[in-house]
Specification:
By secondary structure, the chain is mostly helical. It is built from four helices and no strands. The protein is 87% helix and 0% strand. Helix 1 packs antiparallel against helix 4 and helix 2 packs parallel to helix 4 (104-150). The radius of gyration is 20 Å and the shape is elongated.
């Protein structure tokens, strides 16, 4: 990180924030989906969640790449990739529904649920990183002021 405005965020921290809660949520949804539609519904659920997680991972890669340059680019990349994700998730889930015999209802429902969960968790992740950046800059600024006062 050569730029002093670069964010120190990693893809592993995103996965820690998002992967476990989404997998737990999906696990809790398996029984109701199975009771309503059987195993084919569960496969539809798992397919939709896997697609959303893959798209989220791609979005996270873009955000982390631009975060290494500076915080403003990371925020812009996050917003842009979130808009792109809004197009990619339904498109890819629709394509999966079209090429497989999986039912559309669990795929659509779980795409929406996992999309909203991922978006909320990823937003929390980027806000936390930006807040830490602001605190780091403020601490550095105060340290520099104290050094100037001592000199």
């Amino acid at each position: 990180m050569t730029d002093p405005n670069a964010l120190n965020i990693r893809l592993t921290s995103l996965l820690k924030w998002v992967l476990l809660p989404v997998l737990v949520m999906t696990g809790f949804g398996v029984l109701p989906t199975w009771l309503l539609l059987g195993w084919v519904g569960v496969w539809g659920q798992l397919t939709a969640v896997a697609i959303v997680l893959c798209v989220m991972l791609g979005s996270g890669l873009v955000t982390v790449y631009y975060a290494r340059q500076n915080a403003a680019l990371a925020s812009t990349a996050f917003l842009g990739s979130s808009i792109l994700r809004l197009i990619l998730c339904p498109g890819m889930v629709g394509l999966a529904w079209w090429i497989t015999p999986l039912p559309s209802k669990p795929m659509g429902v779980w795409m929406v649920i996992s999309y909203l969960a991922c978006l909320g968790l990823e937003s929390t992740w980027i806000v936390k990183a930006l807040r830490e950046e602001v605190l780091r800059k403020e601490t550095n600024r105060r340290g520099e002021q104290e050094q100037e006062e001592r000199a």
